[in-house]
Design brief:
Largest sheet: 6 strands, mixed
CATH superfamily of the largest domain: Gcn5-related N-acetyltransferase (GNAT)
CATH class of the largest domain: Alpha Beta
CATH topology of the largest domain: Aminopeptidase
Low-confidence stretches: none
Structural class: alpha+beta
Distance between the termini: 60 Å
CATH architecture of the largest domain: 3-Layer(aba) Sandwich
Mean pLDDT: 91
Radius of gyration: 26 Å
Helix content: 25-40%
Shape: globular
Strand order of the largest sheet: 8-9-10-11-12-13
């Protein structure tokens, strides 16, 4: 059985993900409204791989932002703190300094000063240029209006705003790093909800953002690469992420110097979002019509997807597979088998290249006296791997198709 000291130690350990709580504050009453709390997806980038904090009972780390300009409050409460005299000399972890060092320079430690600063939101407007607006119908809140602004570091107040905004990356994007704001090849896209305040005037609430780096493409072209995209949890599930991506596309697709739009190491969730937007766009193109889809992927699809939406060939092929699956009658074994084989042939291309290299290596090793013989996967093993790859891919495609069905 555990002794009393061990039990006491365990009771003073809490998950940093559970202890952290965020709020976007629009009005003073929101400070005490726990329904507005949202949680981090991760905290190891601040509290270490264990994501644990020692030394407190009922710990609450409160990281609150004013909804518009992101004035920041950081505080904490607890009902008990470890006493090193009875915890074998072990002191409670430092908590607030670890969080504060990741935040922008000006952080409120007093809730009263934060509430005074909250009034800044009343006259605050998004920095940059309005490039896109849209509305969504919310079952609970009715029609909601959103706007996307493009900004750069020359925009008044944007640098300070971005320094506060980017801190959300630490809690929602793994291996996140803050970008070099002195590099003018970065483009910034910020989304806001435009709402009516309690006094009847318009105010803005931060919804999410994206950063895009403009790379050079030979000979006189540019290749924008989407690097970071984040929609804050209170706004997820309303389709605003797709709208943010659409706004980015609209900014670049009409530019002749833009070769294509790429994505830097997309997460599974972002790839699904990208697939949805690209598939919605490409289904309007003649080359992606049903009669052409059943004939298989062709160069016209890649050419038209590139010309109309700056989609590269690899992504155009993926979009084709999604739209082809959508029109495939999976209850018709012949149709379904034809589709599966088409996708598996594409999935098998990298393996075929590996096999060629593998055979070359085998010949070299055989020619060397005493060279080792390396065994690759058998044909049956390769078929099992390929089948698993296909099944996982089809599951992702079906999720995109389901969303398309709902949105049509």
């Amino acid at each position: 059985m555990e002794d009393a000291i061990t039990t006491r130690f365990k009771n003073l350990i809490i998950s940093s993900n559970d202890a952290l709580e965020f709020k976007l504050i629009r009005k003073p009453d929101d400070v005490d409204d726990d329904k507005l709390i949202f949680k981090p997806e991760m905290s190891h980038q601040v509290f270490g791989d264990s994501e644990n904090i020692f030394g407190y009972r009922d710990l609450r780390i409160k990281l609150y932002y004013s909804a518009g300009c992101l004035e920041t409050y950081l505080g904490m409460t607890y009902t008990e703190k470890a006493d090193k005299s009875i915890c074998e000399g072990v002191e409670a972890d430092e908590v607030l300094p670890k969080v504060r060092e990741k935040l922008a320079s000006e952080v409120h430690s007093s809730i009263d000063s934060f509430l005074v600063a909250l009034k800044n939101d009343e006259s605050w407007a998004p920095p940059g240029t309005l490039i896109y607006s849209f509305s969504v119908n919310d079952k609970e809140k009715g029609q909601r209006h959103f706007e996307v602004y493009k900004a750069d570091m020359s925009c008044k107040g944007f640098k300070e705003y971005h320094e506060r905004l980017q801190t959300f990356l630490l809690w929602y994007i793994d291996a996140a790093s803050f970008i070099d704001i002195d590099d003018d090849q970065w483009h910034y896209f910020n989304m806001f909800e435009k709402y009516t305040s309690t006094v009847g005037s318009y105010q803005y609430a931060t919804v999410g953002f994206a950063t895009v780096y403009q790379y050079y493409a030979y000979p006189r072209h540019a290749r924008p690469r989407i690097a970071q995209v984040l929609v804050l949890p209170p706004f997820q599930g309303h389709g605003v992420g797709a709208q943010l991506l659409s706004a980015i596309y609209r900014e670049y697709v009409g530019r002749s110097e833009v070769k294509d739009i790429t994505v830097e190491d997309p997460s599974v969730d972002f790839q699904r979002l990208r697939d949805f937007v690209d598939a919605k766009n490409c289904q309007t193109l003649e080359s992606f019509s049903n009669k052409n889809l059943i004939q298989g992927f062709n160069k016209n699809m890649a050419i038209e997807a590139s010309a109309k939406f700056k989609i590269n060939k690899k992504q155009a092929r993926r979009v084709y597979e999604i739209l082809r699956l959508r029109i495939t009658d999976v209850s018709n074994e012949q149709q379904y088998q034809t589709y599966r084989l088409d996708v598996k042939r594409r999935l098998n291309v990298p393996y075929q290249r590996e096999q060629k290299n593998f055979k070359k290596l085998q010949r070299v090793l055989k020619s060397v006296e005493g060279g080792a013989i390396i065994d690759g996967p058998s044909a049956d093993q390769r078929m099992q791997i390929l089948d698993k790859q296909y099944r996982l891919l089809e599951e992702e495609y079906k999720r995109v198709i389901d969303r398309m069905e709902v949105s049509d």
